[in-house]
Amino acid sequence: MLIQGSVVFFLYYALMTKQEVIINEFSHPDFFKTVLIIGIAFLFSFVHGKFTHNFWDVLGFEASKKYQK
Amino acid sequence: MNDLVLEASNFIDLNVAEIIYLFVVGFVGGLVSGFIGSGGAFVLTPAMMGIGVPALVAVASNMCHKFPKALVGALKRAKYGQVDYKLGIVVGISAEAGVLYGAHIQESIKATFGEAGSNLYVSAAFVLVLAIVGGFVMRDAIKTYRNGTIDEKEVKTKLAQWIQTINIPGTMVYFKSIDAKISVLFTIPLGFATGLLAATIAVGGFVGVPSMIYVMGVPSLMASATELVVAFVMGLGGSIKYALHGLVDIRLAMIILAGSLFGIQLGAIGTTYVKPFMIKVVMGSIMIIVLLSRLLMVPVYMSQLDIFFDLTEKTSSLLSKTSFAIMIFALAVGAFIVLFSIWKGKKEEEATN
Known about the structure:
The complex is a heterodimer of chains A (69) and B (353). Chain A is mostly helical.
């Protein structure tokens, strides 16, 4: 989980430190940037989704036992 | 749409306080979405606008956080056997058509009646839909509670039973959630209405989930989980459309996603501890409270259009702030019920072991 957390942190760090690029580039659309935006959304959902799942798991928030069978 | 691109160039600078604010609102929105399959968007969009994000950028960025969130939620709830993928995709595709048509209606109203006219249309749609559907859902939940049938298997409505008896050759599709075949000629209009509402008030699930329950006969837990598939299909299509016009601020979308993925995991877990009727309780409660919130805004927009009301700027501002506070309250009520259900369910489970 620590590795997943580090990857999530790195992704968000990269996103927030490149704010200038996003403000300047992403508001001028083209096909490539659209693909990039959708790709970023999928990447974050995959990596961060796994991390958040394990995060609650570690804290003991799991599905009811009848759903775990 | 060229004008929209100009507006999009107003991507705002974000400070730490704004990032934390969006993260928290995203978390609460995700918590409710994970539980009832939708919700959150009606607060997220105004929350973004509140920190200076242009309206269309807020709508687009909300859309772009919605589809990855719905994907994670749908996959999680599929593990609990609650998702009917086929139904979600069929309804989702027709909902996409509804979104496009709804956006077209919005643009026409805005061009004819201006910003205030468009806002009045949205608020009126909110009030009308939430009064009818929200009232019905809430009444059903109260009836189930009063009859003491909370623990019993959900009974399909007469309408759902009738629809399942109709056989229209060439249009029949089997859906595992209802264990029966129904004609897509029934699912298409329902999906279209869901999309139309999503484009108008941002929460298509307020029609999508009740229509699956009461019209198609899908059990509540499966309907709320399947709505996440519908939201994914609608959100992906909408995001591509908005991104092609440079309206998606990916920073905003991913910050909200950061919070909402924590929330959606918990919301999904919550569904494993509750009786199906709790879906109706949470959904009905949120819809009725949001209805009050939007009702407050109707005189504000009517005043701006010089119809019947003539409010001072101070009164309008007070009503707007109260309306937003009530919306936050609606989300908080939903989140509280979800968290309380998890706590109670875990406690009961521990006591029986």
